[in-house]
Amino acid sequence: MRKFSAVLMCLMLFGSLLAACGGGNNKEAQNNGGNVAATGNNGGGNAEPAAGEADDITQRKVTIKIHYPLPDETTLRQQEDDKIARFQAKYPNVTIVKDDWQYSVNEIGVKMASNEAPTFYNTWATEAQFLVERGWVADITELWNNWEYKDEINPVLQNQFIVDGKVYGITQNGYVTSTVVNKKLLDDKGIAAPAFDWTWDDMYNVAKGVADPKKGISGIAPMGKGNEAGWNWTNFLFEAGGDIETNENGKVTAVFNSEAGVKALDFYKKLRWEANAIPQDWALGWGDAVSSFQQGRTAMVIAGAFDVIQAALNEGGMKPEDVIAYPMPAAEKGGKHYGVLGGNYLVINPNATKDEQEMAFRYITFDYFTDDALKSVEDTINARKAEGKYYVPTPLEYFSEDSDYAGKVKAIYDKYDNVYKYDPQLFSLLEGKPEAQFGTQDYYATMSNVVQESFSKKGTDSKKQLDVAAKYVQENFFDKIQPQ
């Protein structure tokens, strides 16, 4: 879900070095004497290279318009300014123009048509197919293949921007939705923690066994209001084998009113009406559900693991051994542990010149796999320790778990007793499935109404509910999408 991706982005490991969120209309240039040139279609003011400069991009004048944080994001702006200074110290031939335009599906077409889009911009995991089909993102396969660290990037995240074997974006960070379990509540009830390769039945039994409505303790706290209610439920749709939509020749069709959708909605109703396992006041937003977990009022919550664990340990005073991140449960034994995959990516403007694209690529990856980033991690861990708090890594980093760099990060983690450790079984079972490519938030909002009706009215017909919802989404949103 995009709103949670945005929250996560600000909390990600190495965020202080990788921050590149934002983009707008700030035309200020760095060290350019106010002579700002436009970017794209050879309009960057980059002079034709002299004969001796032809093979060395560092000897040619290049201007790039970078993705820059918003005005109220003062800390991120300071961090980005530091990166700009370090980048220009290495590449004094490059002029940097700041642009704080925020990506919008409703604005990107106009930006491209008017040649006003930045040289690179931030977008979401949902947008890959959409941007590629419309030609609004550059094919950077050659730059990618020549990059020394390409084989160390996290494939789970990076693959979202590889389309038909070609690379169109670079991962910044991401998450796969997980279930976080309060083991202490299970122990108090004498319930054994389930295996990591668990199922819906396991989740049901744990939720039912732990729930104690008289004491205000629920077995599970699915989100029940706001778009996050639809986001939470979509994990179960995926696990049941369903999809949100199809896209054939530009025609987007709602398909979540399927047999899988009915199965997923029926499971939600079992948790509510048979197990009596969800909170009595079930209208919980994202913050409400996370707060319920950190206060010890629910045994399970569905979200990005980092956010829940961070709040539980550093705000709720819980112990690391009592907070366990699980993959989402499979619908049946042997099934997929699908969780909604979200993330943030930087993509390059296809209208930019070859030199601009290459320098944009170098800027994007400038702080990846660096010793400076490692030092930042260790400094942050020590700062947390001084405060009596835990350092919680995110489960999905931009680098691959088996990369050399991951080994260096792990070596730092192993030095400290205030670093939260995920169970290795989690990573072998996590399987992310991307959000819908079109109308994501509209779909979530519609499904949130369905979830609320299911929690408030006993005996509703799941198929009829989903048919009504699919018809609404189709007519009001998907039918208005113009084919390329």
Uncertain stretches of 5 or more adjacent residues: 2-49
Percent strand equals 5-15%
> How many helices does DSSP assign?
19
Count of discrete domains: 2
Largest sheet: 4 strands, mixed
Give the name of the CATH superfamily of the largest domain: Periplasmic binding protein-like II
- The number of distinct β-strands equals 14
Distance between the termini: 25 Å
Structural classification: alpha+beta
Organism: Paenibacillus rhizolycopersici
Keywords: Signal
Protein name: ABC transporter substrate-binding protein
InterPro entries: Bact_solute-bd_prot1, SBP
Commentary on this structure:
- Residues 1-19 form the signal peptide.
- It holds the Pfam family SBP_bac_1.
- Residues 33-54 are annotated as: Disordered.
- Keywords: Signal.
- InterPro entries: Bact_solute-bd_prot1 (IPR050490), SBP (IPR006059).
- The structure is a single chain.
- With 484 residues, this protein is of the alpha+beta class.
- It has two domains: 2-173 and 343-373, D-Maltodextrin-Binding Protein, domain 2 (3-Layer(aba) Sandwich); 178-339 and 434-480, D-Maltodextrin-Binding Protein, domain 2 (3-Layer(aba) Sandwich).
- 40% of the residues lie in helices and 14% in strands.
- The protein is built from 19 helices and 14 strands.
- The chain has helices at residues 2-11, 15-18, 74-90, 108-113, 128-134, 141-145, 155-158, 183-188, 200-210, 227-239, 259-274, 286-294, 305-314, 354-364, 371-386, 404-414, 424-429, 440-456, 462-476; strands spanning 29-30, 62-67, 94-99, 120-124, 162-163, 166-167, 170-176, 178-182, 245-248, 251-254, 300-303, 323-327, 338-348, 431-434.
- Strands 4, 7, 13 and 14 form a four-stranded mixed beta sheet that branches. A three-stranded mixed beta sheet has the order 1-3-2.
- Helix 15 (371-386) packs parallel to helix 16 (404-414) and helix 18 packs antiparallel against helix 19 (462-476).
- It is globular and about 75 Å long.
- It starts with a helix and ends in an 8-residue tail after the last helix.
- The model is unreliable at 2-49 (pLDDT under 50).
